[in-house]
Amino acid sequence: MPPLLATLDMDVAAFADKGEYERLLKRLQLEMLTVQQSYFRQKRRAVIVFEGPDAAGKGGAIKRMTERLDPRGVHVWPIGAPKEWEAGKHWLYRFWQRLPEPGTFAVFDRSWYGRVLVERVEKFAAKEEWERAYGEINAFESMLVADGVRLVKLLVWITKEEQRDRFRERLENPYKRWKLTPEDLRNRAGWKKYEQAFDDMLERTSTEAAPWHVIPGNRKWFARVEVLRTVIDVLRRGVDVELPPLDPEVKKLAGKVLGL
Asked: Is the pTM of this model over 0.90?
């Protein structure tokens, strides 16, 4: 079971310099591409879920995880409030609609866990609704895993002090101001309630079939590398990720057509 967030060790090792970070990042991105190609060839499916406080670095981690992948085989779903036409259906409906096709990845930037996080804290869902949601989520994820979907759940966590610094940076940087919304600032006032909601989420939905992986996020370079390491580790388990040899028929035909 993941630890309570207040006890999480945020003092993670730093890189010697940017060059060391970029070399490791590049190597892991190539490994991620190899995994993606294996999933494509074997028609496997994967769902990768990101949760965390505002400004935790989810978007940056997703960008580094996907930037060397074939875009035809990965779809990133940024999740916000349900559309009006979605609100009249079961609350999990819109996530069913976004599950991956064979050979592809679906990446959720926030997810169905909003039911027990923002909807709980901001009272968008009644207590009996979000309480019931823990069991519904576990059943939903168990069905996915039983159907052969590889599920990776990542919580990128930062401290309240680090969030303040990142909000300040967004205010001062004209290229990042769009990221800071009134809702982000209002949500910060409920930090303790959100922290409790995240702790409850970890306790009640980290299962053997679908465990949570908590990533200390105060240091962005560390978090991005750790996200990649974790995703690669989970997706590789029990999967043949060796690059296939050249098809003899293709080699023979290339010799004729290309003169090789």
From this structure: yes
Over 90: is that where the pLDDT of 243 sits?
A: no
What are the tens digits of pLDDT across the range 101-121?
999 999 999 999 999 999 999
Q: Cα separations (Å) of 175 from 79, 125, 180, 185?
A: 22, 34, 11, 18
Q: Which CATH superfamily is domain 5-258 in?
A: P-loop containing nucleotide triphosphate hydrolases (3.40.50.300)
d(CA 155, CA 94): 21
> In a 10 Å sphere around its CB, with 0-12 CB exposed, 13-18 middle and 19+ buried, how is residue 202 labelled?
buried
